[in-house]
# Entry
Amino acid sequence: MSAQSIIQTLQQLVDLHRELNKMAQEKTEAIKAEELKSLSSLLVQERKLVVAIERLENVRQSDVHAFLREKGVQNGTALLSECIQYASENVRTELTSLGAELREEIMSLKERNELNQQLIYQSLQFVNLNLNLMLPENESYTYDRPQDPEGARKPSKSLFDSKA
# Structure
């Protein structure tokens, strides 16, 4: 397995993560504008991208394993750093730069998703507050007869005694 296939897979992963980042920014705008239809369509598109990223990650791992086996490493993990260690100089620089790009995109995506999560949480708090304001209160400010501790009323004696 050549290092070029690993480089191509990494480039595709970077591109997909960029697209996912762009989609996360669109999600932020949809959350701010309270556009639920566009938000749900973005979520569907996002799921498709995540599935594609998972597939590419599996391809990358198998490519790295094949590359390491080619270099004589038997028990290697599918880490890019291990692959860089056994690569030639020109491939090493390209793998390093692509790895840094991918890490940068992932960190940016993580930050954007945390922001989206906070925005959704604040929106839910606002909705909850409005619901609580609209619902009637259970407490009554007038006098009520206190309930018996057993929860049932004692039978009262009737004025008419049927035994007589």
Remarks:
- The mean pLDDT is 86.
- The longest helix spans residues 89-134.
- The two ends are 107 Å apart (CA to CA).
